[in-house]
């Protein structure tokens, strides 16, 4: 723990053995025996001078860094400003050609998909007509058989006098 720290209050910590007690602007600390020891003015001036020197060094470093950042930002701005806005006629023609090709491709895709469905539907109609005609033939054969069965049953159930019901 650093025995020296700045504060603006008169007393921040309890006075316990080995604890830091803040008095005025500078800290007094207790040793293991519990006796208070205060910093002398020479140490205080040395620490103040050291802190000011460190602040000055940090300020100089930050100024250097800020200057480098400003230089890089201004170079980047110059590069951005050098970019010409707008497109050339070749770029516009290329974009139009790409748009036309895309539209043409989409139309062909839609037509081929629809054509495939149309061809399937057209061939399905021929198949349906063929199945319908086969079913009509089967129905006609079954009707003929049923008519034979009905006639046979009617003959069996007909009265003995020979009259039809």
Q: What does this entry look like structurally?
A:
By secondary structure, this protein is mainly alpha-helical. 67% of the residues lie in helices and 7% in strands. It contains two helices and three strands. The chain has helices at 41-82, 89-157; strands at residues 20-23, 26-30, 36-37. It has a three-stranded antiparallel β-sheet, with no helix packed on it.
Index terms:
165 residues; mainly alpha; elongated; 3 strands
Strand order of the largest sheet: 1-2-3
Low-confidence stretches: 1-26
Question: Could you say which structural class the secondary elements and strand pairing correspond to?
Answer: mainly alpha
Order of helices and strands: EEEHH
Mean pLDDT: 78
Biggest sheet statistics: 3 strands, antiparallel
Number of strands: 3
Strand content: 5-15%
Count of helical stretches: 2
Shape: elongated
Computed Rg: 53 Å
**Distance, first to last CA:** 127 Å
Question: Helical proportion?
Answer: 55-70%
What is the compact description of this entry?
The chain is mainly alpha-helical and 165 residues long. The protein has helices at residues 41-82, 89-157, and strands at residues 20-23, 26-30, 36-37.
